[in-house]
Structure formats: structure tokens, C-alpha cells
Amino acid sequence: MVSTTPATRAPATADPGPLRPPWSARALIAAGLLVAAVAVTWLTFWWIGLSPASLAAGLDDTARLLRRMWPPDLPRAGDVAWMIVETLLIAVAGTGLAALASVPLAFVAARTHKGPRRLRPPARAVIVLTRAVPTLAFAILFVRIFGLGPLAGALAVAVHSVGMIAKLLTDAVEEADPVPAEAARACGAGEVQVAVSSVLPRVFPALAGIVLYRLDINIRASAVLGVVGAGGIGVALQTALGSLNYHRAAGIICVIVVLVLLLELLSVTVRRTVLRPTVRRRTASRTSRRDLVGRDTGAAGRTAGDTTGTAALPGGRAPHDVGWDRGRVLRVAGAIATGVVFLVSLWSLDPDPGRLSGAWPNLRAVLTGMWPPAFSGDLLMAVLESLLMALGAAAVGAACGLVLALLTAVNTTPWRPLSAMVRVLLVVVRGIPDLVYALLFVAALGLGPYAGFLALWISSTALAAKFFADSLEQLDPLPHEALTSVGARRWQAFAAGIWPQFVPSFTGNGLFVADLALRESVVLGIAGAGGVGYLMQESIATLRYDTTAAIVIAIAVVVYAIETLARIARRHLL
Fold it and tell me: Are 402 and 463 spatial neighbours (Cβ–Cβ below 8 Å)?
């Protein structure tokens, strides 16, 4: 007779499932990624000729260049103010145009949208292509079509931003509650009416957050678009470096760093004050409705009240929330101010009809010259060089970033003041765009992938350290505290209590850093730092658009392949 007492059943109920064997699929994937990272790093070092001696010599040359740049020579206040305003207007105009284009594109690409299904594959293809090709690559094309100036920069920012905004908004549309949309369709509403009245109000907070985050990214990108003649403060930086005026270049770099850091602080503040209170108000509103209905009608009434109350108004507002209070007035005023700033940014681009009509012949020449694409061995070798630079720099950057993250995270740092100092250092390092690092290393070390690798190494280290530190601080502290309480040493508590939890996040964030490094490696060649970017700029300058098309296709395929592999690996590891 088998006993069925609670004492014998409890362990089986509490057991989460059979333990994974040491070499499960997850362990094999992690081990394979580690072996691949080591192999790619070794191949990268061999390809670019990196050795301890060459690294020491390169750092010495870089130190001499930095000494030549000191003290920085700041431009006049009026010139700095105009360059900063132009940079901000390019970012605002590009982000606004991308948001307007992304909303219909996201609805067409969403699986929950009931419109013509034949439009879904082209919409998804546009999202993938615009996300894969970097902003600076689009800027080179638009400068050739529209000429020098901020118009080309804003259009480059807009086209590249569509990929990210539309992709994230598509996910939000697919995850939205389908009941209101189905109710509207049952009443005879068309798909456009359903999207505008039922779905868009529910995904608008997500859209606002995505646009704010993308604006932060675009401001950083706009700071260097001038390197290819697309307006902004990057024009002054390229002019200073081209004329060997390193003191002026140092001053402009300082302006870029301060601008990016201030805007990052402003972006964080805006997201906290605009988006989070909305979530808190909705949560509090729903809680108060449940309490009120629960007191009157009990559990059944509470459930019914929740359903009808949430569905009564978009966003889950209760009827008594309707009206003009201080919050709504501020949000409406903010929306009006945003619209005015967007219109001003569009006007600053000088989109006069004569200039736009004059761009049509250039656009027609570019499009007709792109077919058929001209692939070649040199192109494939340049793509391979970009791939090696990116993956090798990401692997080394992940290792260095892990060390810095352990010094930064509050649950692993040996000394709190050290954590604060490392955090400040990482913020400053992340504030300098990758292309600026590449320009400096090219000026110090000469042309080639060596300079590009060092630039990507620095940026990947700072980015990985930020991601890893955030992941470490979000881990469950109980295993580490339990081991520490029984006398385990610091390294023992880390190895047994923190590291097993951290491995999936370490792998996933490391793959994400590699994905970003690959996108950035494409454009470093524009500054002469190796890779396929130099070939792209040269093909456009010599009007060989068939080579340009082949480069764009190769970039999109490689970036999408790496992104897909990273997504599959994260799905099995996280």
C-alpha cells in the first residue's frame, strides 16, 4: 500500500522538476558560445596583427596624440550654440518622421491586424532592412541624393529609426488586449477605425517610451553625422581633424560628451516623470475600483466591476477619472509643445520644393544604378573584416566589462566609493560616440582595422559593464546571503550564489553587445578604421551604385543573421 500522507506528498509537490544533467542543451549552447568567442578573438588578433608589443606601441602613440590635444580649444559660444541646436533639430526631425511612419507600418506588420495579409511580408522586410543598415550608411546615400546639410542627416536618422520604433511597436500591438478591437469589429468598424479608436490608445504609452528612448539614441548619432557632411556638430569635428587642429578637435569632443551626458540625464528624468506616474495612476485607479466594488457586491461584483471598468474607457480609466485635472493639462500642453518643436525642426531642414525636385534625378540615378548588385571578393573580405572586428571586440569587451561590472554592482563591489567612481567613468566613456574613438585612433595609429578594433573594444567594454552591472543587481540575493552567513568567503559566495544565476544574463547581454558592435563596425570604415564602410563611401563617391547595393545587401544579411542567432541563443538560455 502506497502512503498518501501530506508528509510524503509535499516534496513531490514542491519539486520544480527533474534536475538538468551537467551537459544539457543549455550547457552545450553556453559552452559552444564560449568556444566560438575564444576562436573568433584569436582569429581577430591574428587578422589585425594585435600582440602585446603592438598594443603597447599603439597606446603610446595614442597617449602622444592626447598630449597634443591638450588643452582643448573650445569654439566661440555662438558657434557652439548653433551647432548644438542644429544637432538637436536633426535628431528631433528624424525621430518625429520615423514615429509618424512607424505607426501605420507597425499595424500592417502586426499579426493581430486584420488588414490585407499580402502587405505584411513587405512591411516586415522594410522593418528588418531599415534596422540592419546603420544611420551613417543611410547618411552617405542621402548626402549624395540631397546634397550636404541637415536634410540628409534627418532623413538618415528617420529611415534607420523606423526599424526599431516599428519593431517594438509591432510587439506592443500584438500584445495588446484583443477584446476591445474585436468588439469594435463586431459593431462594423473598419480596420483603420479599430486601430485608431481601440488599439492605438492602449499602446500609446509604449509608443511614447519607445520614441523617447530612440530620441536619446538619435541625438548621439546626430552628433557624428557631420563627418559625412550631413550637418550638426560633427562637421566642425571633421574639419578640425582634417586640418590637424587637434586642440579644436578636443574642444568639440568635450562639447559632444557634455551634450550627450546632459541629454541622457534629461531623457531619464522625462521618462520617470511622464511615463511612470501614468502607470501608477492606472494601478491605483484599478485598485480603488476593486476596493469600492468589493465592499458593495463581494467577490463576484469585484470581478465584474474590474472587467467593465477597465473596458469602459481606453487605458483602463474609471468614469470618475474623466475631466481636466492638472495632469491632463500638463500632458496636453506637453503634446502641443512637442508638435511645435517638431514643426520647427522640419522648417530648419530647409525643405524647399526646388531643392527636393532637384533631388529626383539623383535619386533616380542611384536606384537605377543599384541593379544588378555587383558582389566581389574584395567586398566579401571587407564584410569579413567588419565581422571579425565586431565579434572580437565584443568578446574582449565582455570580459573587461565583467570585471568592471563586478566593481560597480552593489552586491559584488568590494568598496562602495570605488563603485561610484567606476559608474561615473563608464557614463563618460559611453557618452563618446564610437566614430569619435575611431577618428582618434586613426589619427594616432593610421588607417586600418587596428584602429577600428580599439574603438569597438572601448565602447563594447563600457556597454557590457552597464548591462552586466544592472543584471547583477537584479539577481536574487538570498543564495549569496545564505552562503555568506555560514562563513563562505567572498569568492566562494560569488561562485556558488551569484554566478550560476548570472550566466544566462551574461550570455544574453554579451550577444546583444556583439549585435550592436557589428552594426557600428560597418560605419567605422568611413573614418578609415577598416571594414566595409570605406568601400561603401568610395562606391558612392565614384558613382558605382551597383557596388553600393551589394554592400547594403551584405550588411543587412550579416546583421540579420547575427541578430537571429543571438535571439535563438537567448531563447534557449534565458
Answer: no
- Residue bearing cell 546583444: 512
* Total count of residues recorded for the chain: 574
CA angle (54 as vertex; 49, 60 as ends), nearest 5: 145
Of 216, 283, 224, which Cα lies nearest the Cα of 520?
224
Residue 401 near residue 468, CB atoms below 8 Å = yes
Q: CA nearest 522: which of 382, 384, 386? A: 386
Estimate the crossing angle of helix 120-132 against helix 150-175, to 10 degrees. 130
Contacts of 185 (CB under 8 A, 6+ apart): 114, 194
Confidence of residue 327 (pLDDT cuts 50, 70, 90): low
pTM beyond 0.85: the answer is no
CB-facing half-sphere around the CA of 155: CA atoms within 13 A:
20
Q: What pLDDT does 401 receive? A: 92
Beta-carbon-side half-sphere exposure of residue 321 (alpha carbons within 13 Å)? 20
Helix spans in 135-245 (H): 135-146, 150-175, 178-186, 191-194, 200-222, 234-242
Q: Which of 519, 522, 539, 540 is nearest to 531 (CA)?
A: 522
Whole-angstrom Cα distance, residue 25 to residue 229? 50
What secondary structure does DSSP assign to 41-101, as a single string? HHHHHHHHT--HHHHHHHHHHHHHHHHHTPSP-PPPHHHHHHHHHHHHHHHHHHHHHHHHH
Rounded distance between C-alpha atoms, residue 402 and residue 58, angstroms:
24
What pLDDT is recorded for position 574? 59
What pLDDT score does 269 carry? 67
Rounded CA gap, 267 and 95, in Å? 14
CA distance linking residue 80 with residue 1, whole number of Å: 87
Identify the DSSP state of 148.
S
Residue 546 has pLDDT above 60, yes or no: yes
Using an 8 Å Cβ cutoff, are 526 and 227 in contact?
Answer: yes
Which residue bears the cell 550627450?
260
